[in-house]
Write a structure and sequence with these properties.
Elements: H1 2-20, E1 23-31, E2 36-42, E3 50-62, E4 65-66, E5 69-82, E6 86-97, E7 102-114, E8 117-130, E9 138-147, E10 153-162
Antiparallel strand pairs: 1-3, 1-10, 2-3, 3-5, 4-5, 5-6, 6-7, 7-8, 8-9, 9-10
């Protein structure tokens, strides 16, 4: 019984340390109006119901800081569904850090549409991977998209991330004599 309690206590401490390893992150990026619409089609079931694939490149005006580096810019490709009253987007974002590393994010948001124009939308995101210092990154968060009058938008991002500790390097192989 004591061994079981010790095992459960050890597991609880391990989980607590993993949760504590999360680092808060926040930032803001701006997306210009010039989003590339790859394709749009009317759904055909009711007026003003369209489905689109949209590609946007955005710059971080308030960079996120991860692993000692800052986010620079990135590109999202999203499936967007719009009706006369609501818009949703689901997609992938590839972010670039100032040192060349990349991070990958899956996202989903929704918001109201008024007079044919999108209003503020809110969404959630999660890391799906990264390169360099961000290899193995995990985490998630939320964001808010505030449309600009010109059709672009400002995206406020917050959340948390963790990067696994680097594996110990293997000892150098002995030279053959």
């Amino acid at each position: 019984m004591k061994a079981r309690i010790a095992s459960i206590t050890g597991l609880a401490l391990l989980i607590a340390s993993a949760v504590g390893a999360q680092t808060k992150v926040s930032g803001q990026h701006t997306c210009p109006k010039a989003a590339e619409v790859v394709g749009t089609a009317d759904a055909g079931d009711k007026p003003e119901h369209t489905l689109s694939i949209v590609k946007s490149t955005c710059s971080w005006t308030k960079p996120m800081e991860m692993a000692g580096e800052k986010s620079k810019d990135g590109t999202s490709v999203a499936f967007s569904e719009k009706t006369s009253t609501r818009a949703t987007s689901t997609g992938t974002y590839v972010g670039n850090m100032n040192n060349g590393d990349k991070f990958y994010v899956s996202f989903h948001d929704s918001g109201a549409v008024k007079d044919g124009k999108p209003q503020v939308s809110k969404g959630t995101w999660s890391y799906t991977g990264g390169t360099g210092k961000l290899k193995g990154i995990t985490g998630k968060g939320a964001y808010t998209v505030t449309p600009n009058a010109d059709g672009g938008g400002v995206v406020d991002v917050e959340g948390e991330y963790a990067i696994p500790a680097a594996a110990p390097k293997k000892a150098a192989a002995k030279k053959a004599s």
